[in-house]
Design brief:
This protein is mainly alpha-helical. It is built from 8 helices and 2 strands.
């Protein structure tokens, strides 16, 4: 078995500084969770993007057969998050584990020379706007029906928002979030899909005819063989 390439797994000071800054801002916002919900999610995703940009670079040279990172790598990164960034043990563990799962599952979607900014663009393209969105992406579940995926992309989707009421309590409310596309853009996309469907139908029909012709030819050959053998 070939020896794996030795890679520096410690995070750069730039990444540590960025993570520490977002962690500090995140802690300040926690006291106003309802009002600052969107800001909190932005900070958390920035942390995921920063750690993803680091793990992406070291993943392929260090990953195990189970698409994970060795134990000593995980320990070092989590210790960096706790000691240098100031995260709690639980948050460091969650950030690390979800990030490794994301890189393992979407390795080909992440630029080889990833930066936090480029990873944030990947998140955006995948409609990941909260930590829960990311967790759902990496969870082991049956893939969405393609119709559901297309409908959310073209038209919009329902999502849960936390709203702070006048009495200070927080309630969750289901709200509909339309897609960024205009009615005309959706119509254009729909027409493209219809054209593509017609092309697919014609292809399937031609394949069916070719299969039928081949079967008919085989039947004729079989009958000739039987006649010659009699």
């Amino acid at each position: 078995m070939s020896k794996k390439k030795t890679t520096v797994v410690a995070m750069s000071q730039t990444n540590i500084d960025r993570l520490a800054k977002t962690e500090s801002e995140f802690q300040k916002l926690k006291g106003e969770r309802a009002d600052a919900y969107n800001s909190i999610q932005e900070k958390k995703l920035d942390q995921y993007a920063t750690l993803t940009s680091h793990i992406k670079v070291i993943f392929n040279d260090n990953k195990t057969d189970s698409d994970n990172l060795p134990r000593h790598v995980g320990i070092q990164i989590r210790e960096d998050l706790m000691n240098d960034v100031g995260m709690s043990k639980a948050n460091a563990k969650m950030l690390y584990e979800n990030t490794v799962k994301f890189v393992a599952k979407f390795d080909k979607d992440i630029p080889s020379q990833a930066t936090p900014e480029s990873v944030l663009e990947v998140f955006s393209s995948m409609d990941i706007s909260t930590q829960n969105d990311l967790k759902k992406k990496v969870s082991k579940q049956v893939d969405d029906n393609i119709g559901d995926v297309l409908s959310r992309k073209l038209f919009g989707k329902w999502k849960t928002e936390k709203i702070k009421k006048d009495d200070g309590t927080v309630e969750e409310k289901e709200v509909y979030v339309p897609s960024k596309y205009t009615a005309q853009e959706i119509q254009n996309a729909w027409e493209v899909l219809q054209d593509a469907k017609r092309e697919r139908d014609e292809f399937d029909k031609s394949c069916s005819n070719a299969t039928k012709n081949a079967k008919d030819s085989n039947d004729i050959i079989s009958r000739l063989d039987e006649a010659l053998a009699s």
